[in-house]
Write a structure and sequence with these properties.
The protein contains 5 helices and no strands. About 70% of the residues lie in helices and about 0% in strands. Helix 4 packs antiparallel against helix 5. By secondary structure, it is mainly α. It is elongated, with a radius of gyration of 14 Å.
């Protein structure tokens, strides 16, 4: 799989399941080592993969906080922060 398609697939997985529990859930069956994928992601986007995942989770939790009446604790648990 070429790098562009690989990164596109990874970002799609992250966006589809922002509340995933671990980074490895997003990387489960990609045909590349985790170490190499992290390097490729950092090179392409300028941020570490884990930081990107964390920022997406925080953005999703902020959206939930603003648009629902849920408690902060409930949103944090739901987004697995």
């Amino acid at each position: 799989m070429e790098p562009y398609k690989l990164l596109s697939e990874l970002v799609s997985r992250i966006e589809e399941n922002v509340s995933g529990t671990r980074e490895t859930e997003y990387l489960a069956d990609l045909p590349i080592s985790i170490v190499h994928l992290r390097r490729l992601f950092k090179f392409a986007f300028g941020v570490p993969l884990q930081s990107y995942i964390r920022s997406r989770k925080l953005a999703a939790s902020l959206e939930n906080l603003m648009l629902t009446e849920k408690r902060v604790l409930d949103i944090a648990i739901e987004c697995r922060l």
